[in-house]
Amino acid sequence: MKRILILSIVILSSSLTSPLFAQDNDFIKEYLERLENSRKYLILVAETMPEENYGFKATPESMSFAENLMHIAWAMDWHSLSLMGGRVARDWNTDTELKADKKSKKEMIAAINKTFDKTTAFISNFDIDKLEERLDYFGLDRTKRQVLLLLADHITHHRGQMLVYMRLNGLKPPRYVLYQ
């Protein structure tokens, strides 16, 4: 009788916790799919804009098309490898790897691809038990799961600015619906 009780408790507890772990695994799997689609669309946007328009700014205080592209790379690196991964953050003022300065269009696209690769590798190997850990995110208390969602929003925000820059230069942006 005691064995049946213990076995029943084990089965019951595993049936309650398994769905939670499956949800976390599904979240990572779905996030990576979304991130890869985001990469494909961003690269298409970057390839569509002519290199001579990479310096375009909507206003003098705005970032240029190229600066928006490289800012996305810097933010992916910071959110994943530094904020969530614990690596010392790059210094935006002195870092040259993820800045647009003196880079060709081809070099910037290679840099953003490399950053997507690093971010994807980090998230693919991320311990799902740490998704609920909390971090200080610019003075706000956020889980690591929320940080990943904020990163996706950040990519979309700056890519949206790049799409407007394309329109302001008389270009038709690539169709988004294919990359959802």
Explain this structure to me?
The protein has about 180 residues and is mainly alpha-helical. The chain has a single domain, classed as dinb family like domain (Four Helix Bundle (Hemerythrin (Met), subunit A), Up-down Bundle). Helix content is about 60%, strand content about 5%. It is built from four helices and two strands. A two-stranded antiparallel ribbon has the order 1-2. A hairpin with a 2-residue loop joins strand 1 and strand 2 (about 140-145). Helix 1 packs antiparallel against helix 3, helix 1 (about 1-50) runs parallel beside helix 4 and helix 2 (about 65-85) packs parallel to helix 3. The protein starts with a helix and ends in a 12-residue tail after the last helix. The model is unreliable at about 20 (pLDDT under 50).
Short description:
By secondary structure, this protein is mainly α.
Highlighted features:
mainly alpha; 4 helices; Four Helix Bundle (Hemerythrin (Met), subunit A); 180 residues; 2 strands
Radius of gyration: 20 Å
Per CATH, which architecture?
Up-down Bundle
* Residue share in β-strands: under 5%
Distance between the termini: 54 Å
Are there runs of 5+ residues with pLDDT below 50, and where?
Answer: 18-22
Report the total helices: 4
- What form results from the Cα inertia axes? elongated
Biggest beta sheet attributes: 2 strands, antiparallel
Order of helices and strands: HHHEEH
Structural class: mainly alpha
CATH class: Mainly Alpha
CATH homologous superfamily label:
dinb family like domain
Number of strands: 2
Here the CATH topology equals Four Helix Bundle (Hemerythrin (Met), subunit A)
Average pLDDT taken over every residue: 89
Number of spatially distinct domains: 1
Helix content: 55-70%
How do the strands line up in the largest sheet? 1-2
